Amino acid sequence: xxxxxxxxxxxxxxxxxxxxxxxxxxxxxxxxxxxxxxxxxxxxxxxxxxxxxxxxxxxxxxxxxxxxxxxxxxxxxxxxxxxxxxxxxxxxxxxxxxxxxxxxxxxxxxxxxxxxxxxxxxxxxxxxxxxxxxxxxxxxxxxxxxxxxxxxxxxxxxxxxxxxxxxxxxxxxxxxxxxxxxxxxxxxxxxxxxxxxxxxxxxxxxxxxxxxxxxxxxxxxxxxxxxxxxxxxxxxxxxxxxxxxxxxxxxxxxxxxxxxxxxxxxxxxxxxxxxxxxxxxxxxxxxxxxxxxxxxxxxxxxxxxxxxxxxxxxxxxxxxxxxxxxxxx
Length: 329
Fold this sequence. Notes:
Helix content: 25-40%
CATH architecture of the largest domain: Alpha-Beta Complex
Number of domains: 2
Shape: globular
CATH class of the largest domain: Alpha Beta
Strand content: 25-35%
CATH topology of the largest domain: Quinone Oxidoreductase, Chain A, domain 1
Order of helices and strands: EEEHEEEEHEHEHEHEHEHEHHEHE
Number of strands: 15
């Protein structure tokens, strides 16, 4: 038996329970993984609350990302072997555990140049950043972009990556501490949205032209302002709703400037497309290894204390990545 976090009813962080679970042996096409570290994603909060449309039936073990060492492989597995260090980001929950079973085609190799804890911290958020800047809207040199929650788990990676491409990056944050980090992570302009009207500041920065794309993980509180920041034929790429679901879009809101509106979900690009997953993961880890992306593991919690981590994330009291370290027996 190993220990894991389980959710028996939806609710606040207090519903997260530290319990013994049976892991079993891997079946056809599966592996067993002893985890070194587990990433915490805001989607975990949604699923704990029962708000995500892919929240699993109760009871369940939350979590969708991590890294560790393969300890057993099931029949037919040829993509990895016992002893390999791998990472994963999948909508198949179950990562809040010391050990778990996974489909072999969901994991990617972690190069020796990347620390497994960093791999766990960056895999889901980094693949999301890859989808945002290459698929949701293709960022190119000379573009001007707006990133909400620029010091958050995905935002700080989007800022670094887009800056390296050659884009001008504008970021919004809630306080000066986060503003300092956003600057360090490649933001050319940082807006303290509690003190400034971000639409006015964006228009001032861009001389009234607006931006090519807004990356918005906040949702309801920023949605209309995000649309207002776009130039003609600009893109609003939503990838989260930490403040709630936006109101329905009126045609007039997008028709006046022929705007594009999309929701980019990493699972829709990589969950059933291993070739695309491997390409994205290789590019991600290459950029980590060569310093293009600096992984900020700003918050570490023992797995048994995950409720504290959830409270910090929900209060937006975190920057960079939050990592859970499996407790040893």
